[in-house]
């Protein structure tokens, strides 16, 4: 009887131990679209085991992104798994939480009129940077047209930037005037900015927490230089601050550091909620100083609940849970909570910097002061320990730690450095475990020096 047979085999399948099941006792085809259905529990186990090979994200000291959330955040994400952030009519309360976050950030970043500012959540700082850059480009074009001048050759001035600004300039056909590193200057400075700005400059973008070194670029000094330029020449060049990391750190830890809307020249700011904003992956923010700084023809207006919601985004549908979780964080932590968390991270970064300096022929190029919580070092110039930083990164990897070694961008490709980001969940105790493995790694490298050995200056010939 086919019916009975079928029931029997389904029952067998349900009773089998998951690894003894037919689904898991043979390799599942990986690149053809599957023909048959499979039992949910079996497939869950299979996918779960694939994820295992990613390693342990908490030992990934390369990432700026959040790798630990409170259980309440998981629960809020679960409650929001069906919420589409773009459906502001259907989910007006999620949209309301987003709007509150924008105003809270405008307040945090000292907007002159936080209640009336413009801003939006995004999928991350990359999308936020695109939107900030587009606003600069549109405003510049409007100014030029009003003056009857050409809009053919826009340019953007940045320091050594994250890839999102390379994308922005390429996608929107803007000349990128990126200030290269030079000697010990690994950041933009006012003189280098002034050398590059002209009437076609749509804006200057300093970074608060440069990707390569974790340092803050001197936003206030650059703004002052541009103020003086305007006094002397009339040229008025706006600024956007890439605060991907620092936008969620400086306001809590160094409230007196002036980098934000307290500088009238700063027209917009982006930050990644999923970095030091401590939200789960998939949320960024961009806020404009005032409504005037966001050209109206970039904005689509949605009216819900009698209000006027400005929609400016590259995506349409995207998850709402990350924004809900961000709102939870703001209420849960407040300025006080963020300050305590980040101060603990700075203390751990400085501890690691001291210990690592004492341990080998290493010289810190960033020790957790004047930037985001982290550290970056090079091999002491002139020292030849018989291994390079790429060898050390490989050794640490055998214990699961990801401590990236890489060469710097133009013109310091000759310099190889290694970097650690200290996030929320990198505790002092975890740092001490890392240091134990650091010592063991140096021991092994000392005894069995890799064949090809490079000094710091030569380190770049050797790409892993
Ligand atoms: C991470 C980062 C970005 C990109 O942000 P995402 O949120 O990953 O899209 C841009 N700029 C800087 C300085 C960053 O650190």
UniProtKB/TrEMBL annotation:
EC no. given is 4.1.1.15
Note the superkingdom of the native organism. Bacteria
User: Required co-factor?
Assistant: pyridoxal 5'-phosphate
Reaction(s) catalysed (UniProt annotation)? L-glutamate + H(+) = 4-aminobutanoate + CO2
> Which residues in this protein are found as N6-(pyridoxal phosphate)lysine?
275
- Gene Ontology BP term (one): L-glutamate catabolic process
Extract the SUPFAM superfamilies matched here: PLP-dependent transferases
User: Gene3D superfamilies from the entry?
Assistant: 3.90.1150.160, 4.10.280.50, Type I PLP-dependent aspartate aminotransferase-like (Major domain)
Q: Does the keyword RNA-binding apply?
A: no
- GO terms assigned for molecular function: aromatic-L-amino-acid decarboxylase activity; glutamate decarboxylase activity; pyridoxal phosphate binding
The top EC class, named as a word, is lyase
User: What keywords appear on the UniProt entry?
Assistant: Decarboxylase, Lyase, Pyridoxal phosphate
Q: Which InterPro entries match?
A: Glutamate_decarboxylase, PyrdxlP-dep_de-COase, PyrdxlP-dep_Trfase, PyrdxlP-dep_Trfase_major
Pfam families cross-referenced by the UniProt entry: Pyridoxal_deC
PANTHER family hit by this protein: GLUTAMATE DECARBOXYLASE
Name the family: Belongs to the group II decarboxylase family.
Spell out the protein name for this chain.
Answer: Glutamate decarboxylase
Species of the source: Nocardioides jishulii
Q: What is the lineage of its organism?
A: Bacteria, Bacillati, Actinomycetota, Actinomycetes, Propionibacteriales
């Amino acid at each position: 009887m086919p019916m009975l047979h079928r029931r029997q085999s389904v029952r067998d399948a349900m009773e089998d131990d998951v690894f003894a099941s037919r689904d898991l006792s043979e390799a599942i085809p990986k690149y053809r679209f599957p023909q048959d259905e499979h039992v949910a529990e079996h497939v869950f186990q299979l996918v779960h085991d694939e994820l295992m090979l990613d390693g342990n994200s908490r030992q990934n000291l390369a990432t700026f992104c959040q790798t630990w959330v409170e259980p309440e955040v998981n629960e809020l994400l679960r409650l929001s798994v069906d919420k589409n952030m773009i459906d502001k009519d259907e989910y007006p309360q999620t949209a309301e939480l987003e709007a509150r976050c924008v105003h809270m950030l405008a307040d945090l970043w000292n907007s002159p009129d936080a209640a009336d500012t413009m801003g939006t959540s995004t999928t991350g700082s990359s999308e936020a940077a695109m939107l900030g850059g587009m606003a600069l480009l549109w405003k510049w074009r409007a100014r030029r047209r009003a003056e009857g001048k050409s809009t053919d050759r826009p340019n953007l001035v940045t320091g050594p930037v994250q890839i999102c600004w390379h994308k922005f300039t390429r996608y929107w056909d803007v000349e990128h005037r990126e200030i290269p590193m030079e000697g010990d200057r690994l950041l933009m400075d006012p003189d280098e900015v002034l050398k590059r700005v002209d009437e076609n400059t749509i804006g200057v973008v300093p970074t608060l927490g440069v990707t390569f070194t974790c340092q803050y670029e001197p936003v206030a000094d650059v703004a002052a230089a541009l103020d003086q330029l305007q006094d002397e020449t009339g040229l008025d060049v706006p600024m956007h601050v890439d605060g991907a990391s620092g936008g969620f750190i400086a306001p809590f830890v160094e409230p007196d550091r002036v980098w934000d809307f307290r500088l009238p020249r700063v027209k917009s700011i982006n930050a990644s909620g999923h970095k030091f904003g401590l939200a789960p992956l998939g949320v960024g923010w961009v806020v404009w100083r005032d409504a005037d700084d966001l050209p109206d023809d970039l904005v689509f207006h949605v009216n819900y609940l009698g209000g006027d919601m400005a929609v400016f985004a590259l995506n349409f549908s995207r998850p709402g849970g990350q924004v809900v979780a961000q709102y939870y964080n703001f209420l849960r932590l407040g300025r006080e909570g963020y300050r305590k968390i980040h101060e603990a991270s700075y203390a751990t970064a400085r501890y690691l910097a001291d210990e690592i300096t004492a341990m080998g022929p290493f010289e810190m190029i960033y020790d957790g002061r004047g930037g985001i919580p982290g550290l970056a070092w090079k091999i002491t110039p002139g020292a030849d320990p018989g291994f390079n930083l790429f060898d050390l990164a490989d050794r640490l990897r055998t214990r699961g730690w990801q401590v990236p070694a890489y060469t710097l961008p133009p013109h310091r490709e000759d310099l190889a450095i290694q970097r650690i980001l200290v996030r929320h969940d990198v505790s002092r105790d975890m740092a001490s475990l890392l240091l134990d493995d650091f010592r063991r790694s140096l021991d092994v490298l000392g005894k069995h020096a890799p064949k090809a050995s490079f000094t710091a200056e030569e380190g770049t010939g050797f790409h892993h």
